[in-house]
């Protein structure tokens, strides 16, 4: 007796669905993201989507998890240069299509707590840890004040981008270098 085999599973479908879900989250927000629209744009069916993710919260969380920020290589010997490099990397990442609007989606009251928690863990926390490690290295090397408020400085590094984006969509020239210089001086560096 010959056994029938089902059709081969499309190995690219998960990536396609996640890419479309990320875009829909950024464009429409969590509340207006439609699983039917995601499936259609990804070139699949809702049952295929539901076999992978049981609902919108799970798909949104998976989409966010799939956008984990790239890790910088080991920190440079020069903490100031490492800070500039980290801010350059942040600018590249947040300037990708849909990334800034995704931040707005995460701030909406209707975004599922699991999705927000996953975004914080996969995107926000790694970046904040890297910036904090750079500033701690500078502090331990005596390059900035020993009592500098690193918690606020970390927030100012990336928060200044969001504040600027609300005021004017055009990034200022040399934003990473200018922001690093301002933060560095505020922390007592020269």
Provide a descriptive summary of the structure in words.
Helix 1 (13-32) packs across helix 6, helix 5 runs antiparallel to helix 7 (113-140) and helix 7 crosses helix 8 (150-167). The protein has helices spanning 13-32, 35-42, 46-52, 56-65, 79-94, 99-106, 113-140, 150-167, 175-186. The model has no long low-confidence stretch (mean pLDDT 84). By secondary structure, it is mainly α.
What is the topological layout?
Blueprint: H1 13-32, H2 35-42, H3 46-52, H4 56-65, H5 79-94, H6 99-106, H7 113-140, H8 150-167, H9 175-186
In short:
The protein has helices spanning 13-32, 35-42, 46-52, 56-65, 79-94, 99-106, 113-140, 150-167, 175-186. By secondary structure, the chain is mainly α. The longest helix is centred in the middle third of the chain and has 28 residues, at 113-140.
Keywords:
mainly alpha, 0% strand, 9 helices, 190 residues
Report the span from N to C terminus: 80 Å
Please count the beta strands (DSSP E, at least 2 residues each): 0
Mean of all residue-level pLDDT scores = 84
Largest sheet properties:
none
Strand content: under 5%
Radius of gyration: 21 Å
Helix content: 55-70%
Shape: elongated
Class from secondary-structure proportions: mainly alpha
Q: pLDDT below 50 for ≥5 consecutive residues: which ranges?
A: none
Report the total helices: 9
């Amino acid at each position: 007796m010959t056994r029938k085999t089902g059709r081969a599973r499309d190995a690219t479908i998960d990536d396609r669905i996640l890419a479309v879900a990320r875009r829909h989250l950024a464009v429409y927000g969590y509340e207006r993201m439609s699983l039917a629209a995601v499936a259609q744009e990804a070139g699949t069916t809702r049952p295929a989507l539901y076999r992978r993710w049981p609902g919108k919260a799970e798909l949104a969380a998976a989409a966010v998890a799939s956008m984990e920020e790239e890790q910088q290589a080991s920190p440079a010997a020069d903490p100031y240069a490492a800070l500039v490099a980290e801010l350059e990397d942040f600018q590249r990442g947040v300037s990708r299509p849909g990334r800034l609007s995704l931040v707005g989606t995460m701030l909406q009251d209707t975004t599922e707590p699991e999705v927000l928690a996953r975004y914080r863990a996969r995107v926000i926390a790694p970046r904040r840890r890297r910036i904090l490690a750079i500033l701690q290295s500078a502090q331990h090397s005596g390059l900035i004040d020993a009592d500098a408020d690193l918690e606020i400085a970390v927030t100012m590094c990336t928060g200044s981008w969001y504040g600027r984006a609300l005021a004017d969509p055009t990034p200022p020239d040399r934003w990473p270098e200018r922001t690093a210089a301002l933060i560095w001086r505020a922390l007592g560096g020269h």
